[in-house]
Amino acid sequence: MKISLTIDGTRYDDDVEPRVLLVHYLREQAGRTGTPIGCDTTNCGACTVLLDGKSVKSCSVLAVQANGSTVTTIQGLARPAANGSHDGWHPLQKAFHEEHAVQCGYCTPGMIMAAVDLLAENPHPTEEQVREGLEGNLCRCTGYQNIVRAVLKAAGTASVEVPSQAAAADPTNAANQASGASA
């Protein structure tokens, strides 16, 4: 089945089997390996991405269901920094780093993507609202305190929105694209 979607600012036109999950399409055909495969059962949230601006567990969506949509992965959040500093990081990525909100790091992409959606809906959440907003994402290492602290820190910054598709379509993204990508 032919699908067309925009991933991190780049349009992809591919043939997929109707049974292929979005998470597998992202990793195997689009080369967006920053989105991990966790449980394949929607229990852990590690594979969370933004689908048309809303967080979804990409193991619960068929690639054909995303046809015509815009997908933002963890790799599409950062804006390139010319000097290689953290300046290009999305405020949530930077806050997770600064607040030591990672341990093994496996849940981090999904946590950050869920937090982007949470802060888009509620830019100034309480600690309780952050915990509630992330409850579908599991972390087996950190105990969540530093994750919650990072989300609250990012909420205090000026801009936590998803990068515009024009910004995400930066030429530096081209090196990350799979052979199925088209401009």
In words, what does this structure look like?
It is a single chain. The protein has 183 residues and is an alpha+beta fold. It folds into two domains: 2-77 and 163-178, Ubiquitin-like (UB roll), CATH 3.10.20; 86-155, DNA polymerase, domain 1 (Orthogonal Bundle). 31% of the residues lie in helices and 14% in strands. It has seven helices and six strands. It has helices at residues 22-29, 74-77, 91-98, 108-121, 127-133, 145-155, 165-168, and strands at residues 2-7, 10-15, 48-51, 54-57, 70-72, 181-182. Strands 4-3-5-1-2-6 form a six-stranded mixed β-sheet, with helices on both faces. Helix 3 (91-98) packs across helix 6 (145-155). The longest helix is centred in the middle third of the chain and has 14 residues, at 108-121. The two termini are 20 Å apart. The model is unreliable at 165-183 (pLDDT under 50).
Shape: globular
Largest sheet: 6 strands, mixed
Secondary-structure element pattern, one letter each: EEHEEEHHHHHHE
Mean pLDDT: 86
**Secondary-structure arrangement, i.e. CATH architecture of the largest domain:** Roll
Q: Report the helical percentage.
A: 25-40%
Specify the structural class: alpha+beta
In terms of per-residue confidence, which ranges show pLDDT below 50 for 5 or more consecutive residues? 165-183
Q: Give the strand line-up of the largest sheet.
A: 4-3-5-1-2-6
CATH topology of the largest domain: Ubiquitin-like (UB roll)
Q: What Rg is obtained from the alpha carbons, in whole angstroms?
A: 16 Å
- Identify the CATH class of the largest domain: Alpha Beta
Report the β-strand fraction as a percent range: 5-15%
Q: Termini distance?
A: 20 Å
